[in-house]
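NAC transcription factor 56: structure tokens wanted.
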Amino acid sequence: MESTSSGGGSHHQPRLPPGFRFHPTDEELVVHYLKKKAASAPLPVAIIAEVDLYKYDPWELPSKASFGEQEWYFFSPRERKYPNGERPNRAATSGYWKATGTDKPILTANGTQKIGVKKALVFYGGKPPKGIKSNWIMHEYRLVDKNSSANKPLE
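Answer:
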């Protein structure tokens, strides 16, 4: 998640070497963090907080982060809008997150396999469809379904 607004910093910085910057590539986020989290495997470093993003407004989230100043990373459950549907519920406290643009595939370094998807979301204050667009942007990362044709090697 990132913002063009000024916001608070995180209060619980992990112990890391001086000069450390957490600026992973999309592939690194998917392979070393998201896949491992989904498999309940140990993470390289406990730097990504677990937060239900939709229980907060975006300006409240920086204080919930484990690390970051202008970008924050979170693991969050993906709730469904309807019990039997696939559509995600992205309603927040005083607004909602709206998908924008097209999903970006995340490929392995050699570009032969799709390992995830990145979706851009913008926060709108109020209720749809009359929400007011804000400067808050969130990037949602998802793993591709193992049985999906999208996970097969590219030709």
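The mean pLDDT is 84. The two ends are 33 Å apart (CA to CA).

Cheers.
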